[in-house]
Amino acid sequence: MVIIHDPQPLPMIKHYKKNGPWIWRCHIDLTNPNKELWNYLVPTVEKYDAVILSLKEYAQNIKTPQLFFMPAIDPFKIKNREMSEEEIKERLDHYGIPTDLPLVVQISRFDRWKDPQGVIEAFKLARKEVDCTFLLLGNVATDDPEGSDLFESLLDCREERIIILSHQDSALVNALQRRAAVVVQKSIREGFGLTVTEAMWKGTPVIGGNVGGIRYQIEDGVNGFLVSSVEETAGRIVRLIKDQKLREEMGRRAKETVRKKFLLNRYLEEYLDLFGAFETIYRLTALPKF
Ligand code: UDP
User: Fold this and answer.
1) Binned average pLDDT, 10 residues per bin, the chain of 290 residues
2) Nearest-atom index, ligand 1, CA of 27
3) Domain 85-261 belongs in CATH node 3.40.50.2000
4) Burial class (CB in 10 A: 0-12, 13-18, 19+), 131
């Protein structure tokens, strides 16, 4: 069984002798794909035995069977494992991150769909009412030609209380998601949003854009907030920073949501069912003909 992730390596299927099922696992939001590009990809997609998409609403009009598996996180990875207060402090001190005021954090690739400018604007509005520090941690995907320009342009937004960092450090991601008073993921388009899952797992309330996979993780007003504008984001930041009890309550429910729905055991079961289905088909086709 071969599983190919995302569009970049999709054509590999044309260059290998196929000895078993090939599955395409697409992680991106396909609700409104660029038509020309999608039509170009379809003949290759249809060479696969199955396609796995993250949400039902990403389904396409193709011949290949489509399955829908929401992603999940590994709670034992460095990014998600338990951390002591000392370990968290050590990571934040290492990068000189101030913890004297509540931290508002967004962690995401430098990509305009993650709306980094919008988060900074929201923070500036929120700061008129509550004292806090904003930290944006991001990276540039090697296959994204626009990422480094966006990063450069964001650097001009830096101020004493607006920190913009780019470090490849999973323990730092973990420490920030734990120490943050509020995590924001103000995406305007999002396939699923693992950063939301990761922060929720740490019992931190998340304010997420009301789009794509974020909507399947956050129940507005219950285990976090869903937002659609800069003003709404600012309002939710202020509300959460002012209300420690609300933060704790939402954080507790957020962690419970991830425990029930977004840990690897559920994902593994879905994959095992799929492998099992193919095993039956391939065993039957491999039977000698009498
Ligand atoms: N991430 C990271 N460092 C960064 C930014 C992101 O390690 O500076 C990780 C983040 O923790 C998450 C993944 O990259 O595991 C991003 O996944 P997500 O589904 O949120 O967004 P994508 O980048 O796939 O659109």
Assistant:
1) 95 93 95 95 97 97 96 98 98 97 97 97 98 96 89 94 97 98 97 98 98 98 98 98 98 98 97 89 61
2) 24
3) yes
4) exposed
